[in-house]
Design goal:
The protein contains six helices and ten strands; from the N terminus they run ββββαβββαβββαααα. It is of the alpha+beta class.
Length: about 280
Amino acid sequence: MAKLQIPSQINADEEVEERTEAAPARAIWTGSLSIGLVNIPVRAVPMTIEKKSGFRMLHNRCNTPISYKKFCGEGDEVLQSEIVYGYKLDRGKYLVFDKKEIASAKPESSKVIDLDRFVNFFQADPHYFERTYLLIPDGSEMAYALLRKTLEKTGKAAIGKMTLSSKERIVLIHFYRGAIVATLLRYQDEVLDPSNRPEIRDLPEPTEKELALAKDIVDRLTGDLDLSLYHDLYRERIDTLISSKLKGEVLHLEKKASKQPAKSLMEALRQTAESLK
């Protein structure tokens, strides 16, 4: 008998496939790290887990799953073979491309990540980080171990490019917890400069008293980063609701009462600092 999976999160506007038992992560990329004449075969596997629910959207009359069909603006159903791609111009006009034209622009799938530069890992701006994969040696234990130890001892990271999902990506190869990992980076023009926002440029300057109280609050709340102290309360509440419903119980979860806002910023700072003493 299959083990019952308790879903842990729901998005009412999104359909998510049912979850199954956790299985060993499969390689999403297989190739080699290349440094000059040194070649290190590796496999890239996911290093993170997306905690999604097993909920499906159902029709409330018959409790059957909802499926989707594609329709054009004229109201006709469209088959997959009839779809082309349009680059939007002005006034609802499109420059049309077929699948072959789009495919011709995709980069050739490369099985080699050429590492042509080493940088200080802490120079990498985390705002450019996208996703990290674990690199596993693929018959290259000695060379892998040497690179791992070198990255650990020097604190350096290697920069290269890899083709993943038909897109050429910048990748940062670095040491993490006894392994070599690959972190995908966004391109420079994919991260916006927040200082250019007019809403931020014209902010008022805080007073000395406000700044002193704010610094006092920060000092009192300063501590070590411990992610285990934080939990997805929404997911836990969904688990509780489902568990109670499986038992035939009706459970209504109460939300925390909202705090009364302070009359002014200065008053809010005073009350917060006083509560931390």
